[in-house]
Each structure stands twice: as structure tokens, then as C-alpha cells.
């Protein structure tokens, strides 16, 4: 049996394994090897049918490759590996082309599942990865069930519902699911009458526009749906009013918190007034500093818009400053743990988390760990956007599209408190209104989708193309892009959407002149930040002709700031000798000591010292700093780079007045090859995320081949997290 140590007998070393299986990294090889070594005793003790040695070898090879695939899938962002995805399949085969060497883990995992027929089409290329053919699903299930996965009192991997997990990720999912479900089982303390009164006052009938009188007001439903639950999700695309709605929700919760204690306290203390009794503790958070800043601004806007409609004392109790999740939890440098956890819980009564699509599974679990059981959690986000960089797809898992419908009890409650009984008699049924297509999605009482964009009127190009892309409609989206070419010059200026197919210099250089050139001429750095937020070039990749590094250099060339070749550093990393007044930078590495985080944006600016001497400083917007600007010596900065262009991944949580998304240049099929990693990097979620970063204007540089590949591609994350309310 000793010679059937799969890690040793199948591949003698990592290089051998790497040559056989496409896309594995050393970490996968060593994980699988360690697992097999740890399981040796269990493998030896299981008698394979007829005790035939070849069968035992086959089993061990399969078990070994399952661990290899599990590690690869985790790196690709999946929280587990469904056995159905590998059972009977040829995994890890492929070509040793340059492109495949550059693929990300996620693409590799997709590629593993691609059709074998691809091979014959590309027979001209060398097939160097033979891959591994897994035994059928039922055989894999049997082998795993026979193995004792518990080693030295520790369950290293877990098999649950035919999903194979690393123990930690199983625990994250299990713990998060349990924390959410226990909140959903907490009964509501407010009466329907009080809730109805509160909703009626913040959604006055006479404020409804004539054109909207026949529509279901999903914002009102969202508020009602979240008030009576300790966990709720309000999901929707850009500008559908998530922040507007949640501000009304917070106002309703503040006013209800005033009513309830007043009733109790009135018996004991008639002197109490409402104002003194509303000590409800609310906190607003978002995954990044930029997203937190945007949330703060949107809440301030919403609150000022509600003056006159909602009691000023109630509005005054809604916080306006959001912070990052990391700050809320209290970062411990060089540790994945936080100061606030199950042993040191936060005192908040309500936590609002925005941009939840960016929050990964471990972080979301840690947030729930740090909250008291009674804390109400409200999640906001757009489930169609790219999932989090690290493992998990929390928002997409708990906000499946299309909506699976409300339970009868919840529907009755909503119709009651929203005063929709009359509507119901007239045949309005919320479930039929949300279920646009028959589906198998689980029932979701805690979830409300906002569907009507308040930013895009449905006629403008950005909203339309975002919809077409996320629905995978290649023809419609390409048509929308092409229509922009036929508009006359005057309307083209007004047009939200522009297809750029000329050489970059023709259309990008004027945009650089319009938006980036004036930055350095601003009289102060605050104005420079305002200007910088007007425009951004977005790329799908870092490397390649249309990658961030290349475009940043190209834009510097347009600005007359070309980097001398000898100063160019690897991976776009900025050399301090290349800094100049007005250069926008992005931090690439967390520095907890300085309080600077990956993705923070700054501007290099001449700052005058006491003696009137000017020094280049890195300036960052920070509301608590003097004049709202924090200044740091560039030599103290962690890794950073220029940010005229940035990846779509990094723009999540940010918006710009005008976005230029560069996927390829002219309408030339050979251009496709210039996108590093071929088409696999593109997905409809990536395009949708890029498109929806634009508030007013969107320029897309692409050709039909590249565009089609993007719209067809889809990000799929495996996970076992599901909150079916009907079960
Ligand atoms: N019911 C409404 N009536 C009038 N204006 C509204 C309504 N709902 C939202 N708005 C306005 O639409 C704009 C977008 O709303 P909001 O910022 O809340 O959307 P969002 O979904 O949070 O957007 P984002 O994509 O920025 O996350 C805001 O100016 C807001 O005031």
C-alpha cells in the first residue's frame, strides 16, 4: 500500500504535476500531497472491492486529484467543489499556449470544463497538459464516504450535500447561514398598526406621481419588508434608489423605536419625551473607503431631500458617516482576526452594509460574529456585479435572480402594512409581480429587488446596455453600441453611450486633454479630486496592449509625462523618481500603520511648508483631516501605481461621470489576440460592472468578436450557501 501514496507515485514533484494538469500552483500540489499523507492510514484501512491493487490505485489517484481540484477551486473564488462538476469529467487538460499561462485561476477552472472538441480545432497547438479523467460521480461519492476525513480530531475537509469543502470554508458557510437564519426567526416587536402608520407617513399617497399610480412601489415594499425582520437584503442595479430607500427605512426604524419605548416608559415616567428615547444605535459600513464615502454622500443627499416629509428629529438620528467594514471590526495587523469578534461584540442595534457584492464569505462571517444576536442587519447591493475578489459569492447566493417569491404570510403582511389590500382586491399579487419567469429560486421573504432605475430613464444608452449585457443578449447590446455610430455630431455629444472603434489616439487623447490635463492646474487639491472623479479609463486586465499598465503609460504620453524607460518598474509599480504634481495614484497594498488600504486613491500635489518651500506630497481625501485632506510623504507610502487607467475589478464601489472602457481598439478580429488570456477574462459580470460605473457617459472601445465573448461569458461561483425561507 505504501507505494500507492498518490502524491508521490502519480507525480514525483510539482513540475511534473504542473506539466500534467493545467493551471495548478505549488500550493495546490502541496495541499493535495499533505492531505493524502494525512489520510494514508484511512486509505490503507479501507479495503477496496476484491482487494485488487489497481482498484486501490485508481481510488487513490482520484482522491488525490479531488484534493488538487478543491485547492484550485478555492483559489478561483469558489467556497467548495461540487463533486458533480468533476465526476466522470476530464479535468485539467489544455494547451501550453502563452495565453493559458496567463489565465487566472477562475478562468482555468472554467476551462477545465470546456468541451474536448476544442482540442481538434486547435490541433496545430501543442497539447501539453493531459489532465485527469475522474471516475463517475457515484464512485467518487462512495470512495469519499468510505474515507475517514477526520484526522487527529480535526476534520480537514468536509463533504456536505456532495460539495467538498476545506473545513474552514464549510464552517464559514455554516456559521453565516445559521446567524442569518436565527435572525430571520426572531419575531418582530412592532405591531402592524405602528408599522403601517410609519410607512404611510414616509410614503404619502399624495406624493405618488400620476404615471406611477398603477405600479407596485417596490421601494415602499422594501421598507415594509425590512422593518419586521432582523435580516433583510435590498438589491438592485445602479440608481434604483437603494440608498434613498434605506434612508427611509432607517427613518421608519428610528420613529418606531421612539414609539415603542414611549409606550412603556409613559407608564413609569410621563416626563419623557420622544427625543430623549430614541437611543437606537445605527452604523453604516461598506467594504472599501471609496464605497463608504459614496454611501455617506448618498445618505446626506437623501436626508436633505426628506426635509419637510420626515420629522427633523428622526432624520437627525440617522448617522451620515459610513466607515469601512475593516474599521468597524478593528483590524489587528498581520492577523485575519479582528478586535471585535464573538468575545468582544459591537454594541450596535442596526448595521447597514452597502456594496455587499464585494464582501467575501470569511469577512461576512466575521461581521456576523462581531454583532450581538439582536442586531438588525440590512444588506444593500447589486447581485449582478462581479463577486468578491476572495472566496464566496454571498450576495449572489442570498439574492438569487429571479426572486423566488414571498411566503403567503409575508405577502399578507406586506399588503396589510403597505395599505395594498384594496389593490389586492383588484387582483394585484406581489408574487406574480416579482416572478417574471418561472424559476426554481428558493422563497426569499427577506429579499426585495428594486427594479426601476431613477438615474437612467430607460431611453438612455447606459441603462439599456447594462440590461442587455447582464441578460446575455449579444445582438441587442451590440446593436445598442452600433446605433451610437449613426447619431449626428450634435446628439453624439449628448449621447450617453459611444462606441469607439478608431485608434486609441483619435478618441482617448482628446478625453485625456479634457479631463486629466486640467487636474494639475487646479488651484487646490480638493478641486483636483473633484476633477479626477469625473472620468476614468477602465480595463479588463493589467497586462497587454489594452491593459492598465500600457494605458497608464500611453495617457502619460498624451500628457507629455512619458516615463523614461530606465525608470519603468515591474508590474506598473510607481518609481518615486517619476512623481509629478497632479499625478493620480492608487495604493496597492494595505498599510495598517498608516491607515492606507489597497484601492485608496490619492493625488501627488505640491504642498508648501512653513518656509514657503514646495514639496511633493501624496494627498488623500479624509473627512477627519484638516481641510479634509491628509498629506503623506511619498517615501512613506506602501506600494502604489498611477491610476489614469484601472482594472474594472478595482473600480467596484466607485462611480465616475464619464467612463471609457477599453477592451480592444479597432474593428479587427486579430485584435482579439491582444487581450491577454484570450476571451476567458471577459464575462458579462465584468462588462456590467464596468458599464454601471458610469453615471452620465460611457465610451466603449471594442470590436464585435471581443464584445460577444464578454457578453457570453459568465462568472459562476460554487457555494452551498442558501437561505430557502420555505424550508
Ligand atoms: N422614489 C424616488 N423618487 C425620486 N427620486 C428618487 C427616488 N428613488 C431614488 N431617487 C433618486 O435617484 C437617485 C439614485 O438613488 P440612490 O442613490 O438611492 O440609488 P442607488 O441604488 O443607491 O444607486 P447606486 O448605484 O449609486 O448605489 C438619487 O438622486 C435619488 O435621490
TrEMBL record:
The keyword Transferase is annotated on this UniProt entry: no
Entry GO MF terms: exodeoxyribonuclease V activity
Catalytic activity: ATP + H2O = ADP + phosphate + H(+)
EC number(s) on file: 5.6.2.3
Keyword Hydrolase: yes
Positions of the UvrD-like helicase C-terminal domain: 643-700
InterPro entries (UniProt xref): Coronavir_polyprotein_1ab, P-loop_NTPase, RecD, UvrD-like_helicase_C
Matches recorded under Pfam families: AAA_19, UvrD_C_2
Keywords: ATP-binding, DNA damage, DNA repair, DNA-binding, Exonuclease, Helicase, Hydrolase, Isomerase, Nuclease, Nucleotide-binding
Binding sites annotated in the UniProt record for ATP: 236-243
Top-level lineage group: Bacteria
HAMAP family, alphabetized: RecD
More about this protein: In the RecBCD complex, RecB has a slow 3'-5' helicase, an exonuclease activity and loads RecA onto ssDNA, RecD has a fast 5'-3' helicase activity, while RecC stimulates the ATPase and processivity of the RecB helicase and contributes to recognition of the Chi site.
Similarity comment: Belongs to the RecD family.
Subunit structure: Heterotrimer of RecB, RecC and RecD. All subunits contribute to DNA-binding.
PANTHER family: DNA HELICASE B, DNA2/NAM7 HELICASE FAMILY MEMBER
Function: A helicase/nuclease that prepares dsDNA breaks (DSB) for recombinational DNA repair. Binds to DSBs and unwinds DNA via a highly rapid and processive ATP-dependent bidirectional helicase activity. Unwinds dsDNA until it encounters a Chi (crossover hotspot instigator) sequence from the 3' direction. Cuts ssDNA a few nucleotides 3' to the Chi site. The properties and activities of the enzyme are changed at Chi. The Chi-altered holoenzyme produces a long 3'-ssDNA overhang and facilitates RecA-binding to the ssDNA for homologous DNA recombination and repair.
Name of the molecule in the record: RecBCD enzyme subunit RecD
Amino acid at each position: 500500500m505504501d507505494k500507492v501514496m498518490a502524491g508521490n507515485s502519480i507525480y514525483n514533484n510539482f513540475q511534473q504535476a504542473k506539466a500534467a494538469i493545467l493551471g495548478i500552483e505549488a500550493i495546490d500540489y502541496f495541499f493535495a500531497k499533505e492531505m493524502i499523507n494525512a489520510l494514508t492510514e484511512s486509505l490503507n484501512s479501507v479495503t477496496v472491492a476484491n482487494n485488487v491493487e489497481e482498484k486501490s490505485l485508481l481510488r487513490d489517484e482520484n482522491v488525490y486529484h479531488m484534493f488538487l481540484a478543491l485547492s484550485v477551486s478555492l483559489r478561483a473564488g469558489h467556497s467548495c467543489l461540487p463533486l458533480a462538476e468533476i465526476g466522470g469529467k476530464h479535468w485539467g487538460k489544455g494547451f501550453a499556449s502563452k495565453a493559458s499561462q496567463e489565465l487566472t485561476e477562475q478562468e482555468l477552472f472554467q476551462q477545465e470544463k470546456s468541451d474536448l472538441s476544442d482540442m481538434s480545432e486547435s490541433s496545430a497547438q501543442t497539447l501539453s497538459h493531459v489532465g485527469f479523467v475522474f471516475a463517475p460521480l457515484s464512485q467518487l461519492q462512495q470512495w469519499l464516504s468510505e474515507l475517514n476525513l477526520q484526522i487527529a480530531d480535526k476534520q480537514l475537509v468536509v463533504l456536505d450535500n456532495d460539495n467538498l469543502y476545506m473545513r474552514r470554508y464549510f464552517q464559514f458557510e455554516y456559521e453565516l447561514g445559521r446567524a442569518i437564519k436565527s435572525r430571520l426567526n426572531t419575531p418582530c416587536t412592532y405591531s402592524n398598526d405602528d408599522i403601517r402608520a410609519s410607512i404611510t407617513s414616509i410614503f404619502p399617497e399624495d406624493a405618488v406621481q400620476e404615471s406611477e399610480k398603477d405600479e407596485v412601489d417596490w421601494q415602499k415594499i422594501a421598507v415594509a419588508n425590512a422593518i419586521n425582520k432582523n435580516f433583510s437584503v435590498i438589491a438592485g442595479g445602479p440608481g434604483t434608489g437603494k440608498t434613498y430607500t434605506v434612508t427611509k427605512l432607517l427613518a421608519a426604524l428610528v420613529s418606531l423605536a421612539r414609539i415603542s419605548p414611549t409606550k412603556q416608559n409613559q407608564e413609569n415616567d410621563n416626563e419623557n419625551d420622544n427625543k430623549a428615547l430614541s437611543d437606537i444605535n445605527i452604523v453604516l459600513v461598506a467594504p472599501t473607503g471609496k464605497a463608504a464615502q459614496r454611501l455617506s454622500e448618498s445618505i446626506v443627499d437623501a436626508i436633505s431631500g426628506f426635509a419637510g416629509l420626515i420629522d427633523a428629529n428622526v432624520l437627525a438620528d440617522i448617522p451620515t458617516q459610513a466607515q469601512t467594514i475593516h474599521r468597524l471590526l478593528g483590524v489587528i495587523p498581520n492577523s485575519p482576526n479582528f478586535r471585535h469578534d464573538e468575545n468582544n461584540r459591537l454594541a450596535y442595534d442596526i448595521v447597514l452594509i452597502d456594496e455587499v457584492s464585494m464582501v467575501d464569505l470569511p469577512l461576512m462571517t466575521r461581521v456576523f460574529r462581531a454583532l450581538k444576536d439582536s442586531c438588525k442587519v440590512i444588506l444593500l447591493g447589486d447581485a449582478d456585479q462581479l463577486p468578491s475578489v476572495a472566496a464566496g459569492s454571498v450576495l449572489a447566493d442570498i439574492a438569487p435572480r429571479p426572486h423566488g417569491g414571498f411566503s403567503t404570510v409575508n405577502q399578507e403582511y406586506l399588503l396589510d402594512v403597505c395599505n395594498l389590500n384594496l389593490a389586492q382586491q383588484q387582483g394585484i399579487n406581489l408574487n406574480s409581480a416579482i416572478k417574471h419567469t418561472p424559476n426554481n429560486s428558493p422563497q426569499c421573504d427577506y429579499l426585495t429587488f428594486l427594479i426601476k432605475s431613477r438615474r437612467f430613464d430607460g431611453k438612455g444608452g447606459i441603462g439599456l446596455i447594462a440590461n442587455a449585457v447582464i441578460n446575455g443578449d449579444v445582438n441587442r447590446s451590440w446593436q445598442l453600441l452600433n446605433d451610437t455610430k449613426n447619431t449626428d455630431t450634435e446628439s453624439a455629444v449628448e449621447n450617453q453611450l459611444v462606441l469607439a472603434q478608431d485608434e486609441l489616439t483619435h478618441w482617448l487623447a482628446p478625453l485625456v486633454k479634457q479631463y486629466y490635463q486640467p487636474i494639475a492646474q487646479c488651484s487646490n487639491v480638493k478641486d483636483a479630486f473633484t476633477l479626477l472623479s469625473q472620468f476614468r479609463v477602465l480595463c479588463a486586465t493589467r497586462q497587454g496592449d489594452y491593459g492598465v499598465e500600457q494605458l497608464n503609460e500611453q495617457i502619460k504620453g498624451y500628457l507629455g509625462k512619458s516615463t523614461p524607460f530606465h525608470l519603468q518598474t515591474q508590474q506598473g509599480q510607481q518609481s518615486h523618481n517619476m512623481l509629478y504634481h497632479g499625478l493620480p495614484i492608487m495604493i496597492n497594498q494595505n498599510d495598517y500603520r498608516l491607515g492606507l488600504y489597497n484601492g485608496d486613491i490619492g493625488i501627488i500635489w505640491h504642498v508648501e511648508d512653513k518656509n514657503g518651500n514646495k514639496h511633493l506630497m501624496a494627498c488623500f481625501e479624509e473627512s477627519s483631516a484638516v481641510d479634509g485632506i491628509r498629506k503623506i510623504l511619498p517615501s512613506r507610502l506602501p506600494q502604489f501605481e498611477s491610476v489614469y487607467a484601472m482594472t474594472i475589478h478595482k473600480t467596484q464601489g466607485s462611480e465616475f461621470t464619464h467612463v471609457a472602457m477599453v477592451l480592444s481598439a479597432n474593428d479587427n478580429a486579430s485584435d482579439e489576440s491582444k487581450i491577454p488570456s484570450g476571451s476567458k477574462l471577459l464575462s458579462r459580470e465584468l462588462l456590467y460592472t464596468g458599464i454601471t460605473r458610469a453615471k452620465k457617459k460611457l465610451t466603449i472601445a471594442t470590436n464585435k468578436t471581443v464584445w460577444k465573448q464578454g457578453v457570453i461569458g459568465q462568472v459562476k461561483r460554487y457555494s452551498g450557501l442558501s437561505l430557502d425561507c420555505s424550508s
